[in-house]
């Protein structure tokens, strides 16, 4: 999400590397153990057997269940099922009304008026009102909360920035017209504004619950989404129950059991302990074989995601574009994708992933060229490897050696450039905190689109004024193109502006694009309508378990 970072994308890479470990080994949640309620025995155990209406999945603990703070895809996978906002993204990737039943846009494109659904309720049965919407927006963009994603997704609203920096109390651009009508005023016409409202930062939360239990309300949040938490035991399981009063209809799957304890997911799938499992590198040939036990259950889905290596341009030696180019030119992404990963990933051709509006098939990245890499390093102001300061690459993980592809990159940088790069692995929460603060010199990460618009990656990650620009990158030409694209109302002209910006960003080698990803899974035959969306969207209510 914002950051698809390691979460969903890195979970896939982890599966490739170690063969089917669940995301629970990659992302570790913190916080006190939730109190269990219905569905558990007096000993605290939950029935995990196959049952009618029960969907069993492997996952990791969320880093947060506060939608205003969500900056990772792993947390968002839960949040989009528990909460909801005015708008959402449907299965066909259209931006459609959610808590809102309708909306109107002023002729100048700056004023949006939303009418709430009459039957929109919190999980406890209280009606959702326009005041709840205003409170949620003001809280998410407040100085007190200091959300790292607040301004990135709400900053277009008049008064949101003043609210964030403590220059005003509240957001003047959000107006309660009546109990069911709320009006937003933007600083400029923004064609992507409705899409931004699908991000969790804009989701509605319950003021009464938060104020009555400010420290622990997220243990069992009173949301508005299709599912509600029954039980959450950190590093063990998280159980969701269907919200039968959900305004778009009761979900068909009545219980979703997320197993958080880790372990080989495919083995557990074959032992009938899970209904869906990712497929790792060591099992992909078996899954691709239509005559194998997995072959008829195997499915693959494209993702709007990219894995990349990022360079902090204010941190030597990556303050020199020629050093960044040298690092890019000295790794063979194509061979690693084909040989190491058995074509489960495809080499990235730029920043925008395939099928996203604005994507072009031409490869815009620096190709593997050892001679050109050496020339680029020699052309830098450092001149040679022995004059470079120490270089450290950071990634999420707990191993001593790093990801298998990272190890390959380190070897190529050593043999081609003569640069010895140290690897540092850390837990996800620490990684994200350091990334947001711009403390990382060089890091391995990824991005999953939040909505199908190039603004969601090019503007958010590379505009010099973006709160999510974690590399101190600034290019006046890129800023100008992105500023124009923000307000351009002609769709084709707008996409061309983004394509021009993407080309300049790749030339600056601020990111080293690695791979575009696909999801590889096996699904039990009794699980109907299963799909892996190319980005995080609410999907569990569309699934059916026929046993």
Explain what you see:
The protein is of the alpha+beta class and 547 residues long. Among the domains are: 84-210, Dipeptide-binding Protein, Domain 1 (Dipeptide-binding Protein, domain 1, Alpha-Beta Complex); 305-517, Dipeptide-binding Protein, Domain 3 (Dipeptide-binding Protein, domain 3), CATH 3.10.105.10. It is built from 17 helices and 19 strands. It has helices at residues 5-18, 73-82, 130-140, 150-154, 160-164, 193-196, 207-212, 265-270, 284-288, 321-329, 333-340, 370-379, 404-417, 428-436, 455-462, 476-487, 491-507; strands at 54-58, 87-89, 95-97, 100-105, 111-116, 174-178, 181-185, 227-233, 237-242, 255-259, 276-278, 298-311, 345-347, 391-396, 421-426, 442-448, 511-523, 527-528, 544-545. The strands form five sheets. Strands 11, 12, 13, 14, 15, 16 and 17 form a seven-stranded mixed β-sheet that branches. Helix 15 (455-462) packs antiparallel against helix 16 and helix 16 packs antiparallel against helix 17. The longest helix has 17 residues, at 491-507. The radius of gyration is 23 Å and the shape is globular. The two termini are 33 Å apart. Mean pLDDT is 91; it is low at 4-44.
- What is the percentage of strand-forming residues? 15-25%
Which CATH top level class of the domain at 305-517 fits?
Alpha Beta
Percent of residues in helices comes to 25-40%
The parts where pLDDT drops under 50 for at least 5 residues are 4-44
Short précis:
With 547 residues, this protein is α+β, with helices and mostly antiparallel strands. The chain contains 17 helices and 19 strands.
